[in-house]
Design brief:
2,3-Dihydroxybiphenyl 1,2-Dioxygenase, domain 1; 153 residues; alpha+beta; four-stranded mixed β-sheet; single chain; 2 domains
Length: 153
């Protein structure tokens, strides 16, 4: 059996606001919108795509669903090749940065195997040097931005 990544589902408080945010910040494009139900409750849905990722944005009539989802999802990490450029983009868009950017070393307890060489762009047997930062989307979803093309440890 072969498994592969298909999409990320994110609950949002206002689907139109979230679509605008993802289009502006991540250069996503809308694939389609649909109305559905979650159980017996109306559900607005939009599928958007950017960076090779498909996001399924979901607006529930019951906003407590959004709050519960935020408590169990810590963050979604996305890769950039230039942190300073992305931070400038966020600043120009009026998006507040929660933390960072900062440069934590990622020290490995064992070398990555060849089949896992896609985890970081640059790394050595003992670890990788990263630059990371965090911010929130319009519904409280938390993003980590990772620059991992820095000379390895």
């Amino acid at each position: 059996m072969k498994l592969g990544f298909q999409h990320v589902g994110i609950y949002c408080r206002d689907i139109d606001e979230s679509i605008s945010f993802y289009e502006e910040i991540f250069d996503c494009r809308i694939l389609f919108r649909a109305d559905a139900t979650e159980g017996d409750k109306p559900l607005k849905m939009a599928w958007i795509k950017g960076m090779g990722i498909v996001f399924e944005l979901l607006e529930c009539e019951d906003k407590t669903t959004c709050d519960a989802a935020r408590r169990c999802l810590n963050h979604l990490a996305l890769r950039v090749d230039d942190m300073d450029e992305f931070v400038a983009h966020l600043n120009a868009s009026g998006v507040a940065i929660e933390a960072g950017p900062f440069d934590p070393p990622m020290e490995f307890d064992r070398p990555l195997s060849e089949k896992d060489s896609d985890v970081f762009i640059a790394f050595g047997d003992t670890g990788a040097q990263l630059r990371i930062m965090f911010f929130h989307g319009p519904s409280g979803e938390r993003f980590e931005i990772v620059q991992d093309n820095i000379v390895a440890l």
